[in-house]
Amino acid sequence: MPNVGQRPGRRVFIETYGCQMNLADSELMGGVLSTRGYTAAPNHEEADVILINTCAVRERAEERVFGRLSYLLRFKNERPEVILGVTGCMAERLREVITERAPYVDLVIGPDAYRRLPELLEQCQESDADPVIDVKLDREETYKGLQPERRPGISGWVTVQRGCDKFCTFCIVPFVRGRERGVAPEEILAQCRDMAARGYKEVTLLGQTVNSYRHEDTDFADLLEEVVKIEGIERVRFTSPYPTDFTPKLIATMAKHDKICNYLHLPLQSGSDQTLETMKRLYTSEEFFKLVDDIRQAIPDIAMSTDIIVGFPGETDEDYQKTVDALERIRFDFGYLFKYSERDGTFASRKLPDTLDEATKGSRLAALIKRQEAISAEIFKGRIGSTVRVMVEGESRRDANDLCGRSDDFKMTVFPRPADRELKPGDFVNVRITDATSHTLLGEIID
Ligand code: SAH
Ligand code: F3S
């Protein structure tokens, strides 16, 4: 039966900024549109609809989107019939600014309006006047019954939780993504099974505080137990857990299953208890250390990474030094280190003046990056001589004679293409490590 409102041949190009959740949301939008006859355009030049799926977590992410929008204005001047839409977190947060700074945008929709996308695009076509806006947040929406459009591949995402209830004082996410909701386990498992049937080998379960996942009686450990049972899925990852939502049951589940990747991204944010308290993170540095120790005790070879914010309001030299000390103590395999960026509407922007000057923030960040890079290099070089199991992803970007893939503990590993056999993405090989940088292991296949 033909779908109502189907427009065969309309081509959509979705450009994604920000986190993996946004990449997953873009696949969701692609899925919604494909049921109405839209197909994916390979680039914006060949599209009838261009959607920019945006991130609002830091100012720089937003500036990049405004830069991109002004670039697309020229294109829109040449082809005014093209619909240009801004979707996601920044659309939710900055609808007025977007329509002021980029009045040529036709559509502005937030992360809970994707189900209505086809109708909203219809409205854009019908009216040349003001942009069509839909930024209503919805306490219930988990996109039940919608199938994301995934490109063929070996590794993909499944959103298991939307929104966030933590309200860390620096963070815009709870305001732009609304309240925490768990997706029904049947939906998640159906997606994972579908991916396995299509040749996917790795799934990453996504949520803002993914381990606080709950749906009726199912908690996150229960969900993992079901996902690992799916035949064909060889690796299961998840991101990002919140430290105080880690239960002994979850740690035991991770330790029990080889399929659960030996890598964990565990955001610390700061090593200072004072700063953690003003950030309204719900743990102290000692509690975080204890959690890391417990996880390492249960899974000794686990790799870890973290997120850190430097220059949070009120951060003294001593507070900053505690963050440096925490990185030294824990020795994360790598870190995503950010300068504090004030976000309008958050508690911090209302109550905690951004006291530190840019130079101080900048020099703290640079020194921390330097220190973490050195730690990462030591850890990566420490792997020289060992053998790691790697899932082949494809050709190395640097040299077509090399292949690359991630180790079980998620380290990018590069090795020469074997002469005696053809390897394809998703194959597993054992690689003996002969050299390393602070981000990559280098080696050769041993079998
Ligand atoms: N719960 C999510 C957090 C999303 S934001 C997750 O763990 O993925 C991702 C990271 O961006 C945060 O962990 C934090 O380190 C950083 N971040 C968030 N708000 C920020 C801000 N206002 N300034 C600088 N960095 C920020
Ligand atoms: Fe943001 Fe804190 Fe939630 S960092 S996404 S409010 S856990």
UniProtKB/TrEMBL annotation:
UniProt superkingdom = Bacteria
Describe the location of the TRAM domain by residue ranges. 381-447
Cofactor annotation: [4Fe-4S] cluster
| Cofactor binding, note field | Binds 2 [4Fe-4S] clusters. One cluster is coordinated with 3 cysteines and an exchangeable S-adenosyl-L-methionine.
* Record-listed [4Fe-4S] cluster 1 binding positions: 19, 55, 89
* Domain annotation Radical SAM core: ranges: 150-378
Fetch the InterPro entries from UniProt: Elp3/MiaA/NifB-like_rSAM, Methylthiotransferase, Methylthiotransferase_CS, Methylthiotransferase_N, Methylthiotransferase_N_sf, MiaB_methiolase, rSAM, rSAM_horseshoe
Molecular function as annotated in GO: 4 iron, 4 sulfur cluster binding; metal ion binding; tRNA-2-methylthio-N(6)-dimethylallyladenosine(37) synthase activity
Q: What does this protein do?
A: Catalyzes the methylthiolation of N6-(dimethylallyl)adenosine (i(6)A), leading to the formation of 2-methylthio-N6-(dimethylallyl)adenosine (ms(2)i(6)A) at position 37 in tRNAs that read codons beginning with uridine.
Which NCBIfam families did the record assign?
Answer: miaB-methiolase (TIGR01574), MiaB/RimO family radical SAM methylthiotransferase (TIGR00089)
Q: What is this protein called?
A: tRNA-2-methylthio-N(6)-dimethylallyladenosine synthase
Can you name the source organism?
Answer: Lujinxingia litoralis
